[in-house]
Design goal:
The protein has 21 helices and 13 strands. It is α/β, with parallel strands linked by helices and 498 residues long. It folds into two domains: 284 residues, Rossmann fold (3-Layer(aba) Sandwich), CATH 3.40.50.720; 196 residues, N-(1-d-carboxylethyl)-l-norvaline Dehydrogenase, domain 2 (Orthogonal Bundle), CATH 1.10.1040.10. Strand 4 and strand 5 form a beta hairpin.
Amino acid sequence: MDELMTQETVRLGRAALDHLPAQIARPAYKAEELTPGIVHIGTGNFHRAHQAWYLHRLMQQGLAHDWAIIGAGVRPGDAAMRERLMAQDCLTTLIELRPDGTSAEICGAMIGFVPVEPDNAALIAQMAAPEIRIVSLTVTEGGYFVNPATGVFDPDHPDVAHDAAHPATPRTAFGAIVAALRLRRDAGHGPFTVQSCDNLRGNGDVTRDAVIGLARLSDPALAEWIAAECTFPNAMVDCIVPATGPAELAAARAFGIEDAAPVTHENYRQWVIEDAFCAGRPDWDRVGATFTADVHSYETMKIRILNAGHQVLANAGELLGVETIAECMAHPEIAPFWRKVELNEIVPHVADVPGMTAADYVTLIESRFANPAIRDTTRRVAFDGSSRHAGFVLPILRDALQAGAPLDGLALVEALWARMCAGTREDGSEIAPNDPAWDSLQTVARAARTEPAAWLAQDDTYGDLAQSDRFAQAFDRWLRMIWQDGTTAALRTYADAG
């Protein structure tokens, strides 16, 4: 920690800003100068370190004061976050973790948080308010009701079916958005932009499909109005943001701040956005965001090299008991495996973007992953593999099959995931449940120990990939080797192959 830090702490809140240690950057604007323009659903660490930070930087310049954020959530766990944030006036301590030191600032772009309710009444009312012009979301990759095998909106999901049958009392974020848009249409308030900030290819298109698809189930005329009036910009978002635990709480205290929900983050951010906002937007490009019509190229580079690259590391790390991503990058077997998969099997399916080649991006990601100040756990990165492998890794596998390109390492990535889902590490210790579908995954993973084809028979994940002999045979070979000879032997065999 930097030597300027103190062990004396001040409880975070608007009234305490003037009493914080002098080295802590704080808002140059006052809460009473701000009015809401954005409702954000899913106020976890990533949102507060990314979208809220960009808005905060604008506000520091005296701009965008009519775009303040109202936080929201649709899950019972979001109520705990609301309680923590409201107790400190929705302020967040952002702690930047550089390899050579740390710094902290207070972000005040959020000014309220609606109550979290089973019927989402308060959220619907807030989004229906005419001053709200953007509703944004970070609800995780698995929260968009996409069938992983088909890649399209799943109208048969139980939560979707509930919202279609009870449109005034929805369970989901998308049901609440549809209900709010109905109120706005009926009141003549006009539409808002729905902006995904999740790591999904074509996240705006996916969001559009979810909102319009759900609306169509209960009110086809409303669905047509949404399709004609609302916008759903695609975007690529990037910043490594670890989960908050005791170490992060202690880091805030070391800066002299008692914060119940601090956020640590790396010293890198990127936000590439399609400029499609039906009701206006903040000028995020003034503080480093990029507006472009070609979001797809940027998101493909990031999702394939960084997000798929995370999955290359995390399952191997879990099996070998390597706690963090940085430690994986220092591991004598995991690191060479990662780099070979990236350069030989991922980069060939990634186009260059202005100012950055795919190979250079691998080097950038390598340095970011290796940052020892970022204690990003393999467990966090491995969470919800059923969504992340389907969204990040399997599209590359499909491209490799179509092109007749190498895929041995990608097949090994899938075999490592299957082995991890059996629920034990190589040292015999238990891997705690780490996926919404953990119980079913574990059952299949244990059956796949002797019949690897059982894993690929999960149609909702692999679809027709199991019909590819080249992939199925490689997967079979790797999974049998992992169970017989161990993860380290499999990694070495791959890395040493010509």
